[in-house]
Amino acid sequence: MRLILLGPPGAGKGTQAARLQQDHGIVQLSTGDMLRSAVSAGTEVGLQAKEIMEAGGLVSDDIMVRMISERLDEPDCANGFILDGFPRTVVQAEALDAMLDDKHLDLQHVVQLTVDDAVLIARVEGRYSCAACNANYHDRFRRPRIEGVCDACGGTEFKRRPDDNAETMKSRLEAFFAQTAPILPYYEGRGILRKIDGMGSMDAVGAALDKVLAL
Ligand code: AMP
Questions:
Q1: Model-level pTM greater than 0.85?
Q2: Checking DSSP bridges between strand 109-114 and strand 2-6, what pairing results, if any?
């Protein structure tokens, strides 16, 4: 299955993509994670992306399209993938179509997660993850079973994203509404866009998503 999860930062794309990967073995392709790895590794792409990410802007279409095109050629994508954070502009959406055509692949679903802005900010501000295995947690909505210990791997070091704060979140939301939301009519016109209410609990949103995907 090949699908796109679309929605503003904090809508739950990463949470749901990770769950789909774990439960259904569909590989999660998070361009945000790829960029954060590039920044940590100090690669050329990482150096170009760092400041833009910290300011809540969008990294150039050229870089992003190349990154995804190369990633789709890796063997683990052969059985399908979930695009989490890509495409984020109409140029990226068009480039994705062209690359899927070239690779003789089609897209089955584009799912939009809708969440009120005030809730997005609260979700993003409290989130953190395990430094060892990247399992996601939240100060209010999802604490580890034992305080300070990762449920998934037992790790005791946690990290927060530098862009997960109220101020950067404003720029990230602006980028979403100005540059990413115009993608929606593009997929709506093709009849493959489905909307899901992302305001519910992780389990409720997960159940709604599985229903749309007929999993
Ligand atoms: P995310 O983890 O998806 O919230 O992405 C974190 C940051 O990485 C974004 O705020 C952007 O600066 C950058 N980014 C991730 N994916 C893309 C993309 N497809 N196009 C441009 N910038 C991106």
A1: yes
A2: parallel
Q: How many angstroms does the Cα of residue 122 sit away from the middle of ligand 1?
A: 19
9 Cβ inside 6 Å of ligand 1: yes
CA-based Rg of the chain, rounded to a whole angstrom?
Answer: 17
State which H helix or E strand residue 18 sits in: helix 13-24
Length of the chain: 215
Whether the CB of 6 sits within 6 Å of ligand 1: no
Tens of pLDDT along the chain (215 residues) come to 999 999 999 999 999 999 999 999 999 999 999 999 999 999 999 999 999 999 999 999 999 999 999 999 999 999 899 999 999 999 999 999 999 999 999 999 999 999 999 899 999 999 999 999 989 999 998 999 999 999 999 999 999 999 999 899 999 999 999 999 999 999 999 999 999 999 999 999 999 999 999 98
Joined together, the tokens standing for residue 94 give: 């068009």
172 lines ligand 1 (CB under 6 A): yes
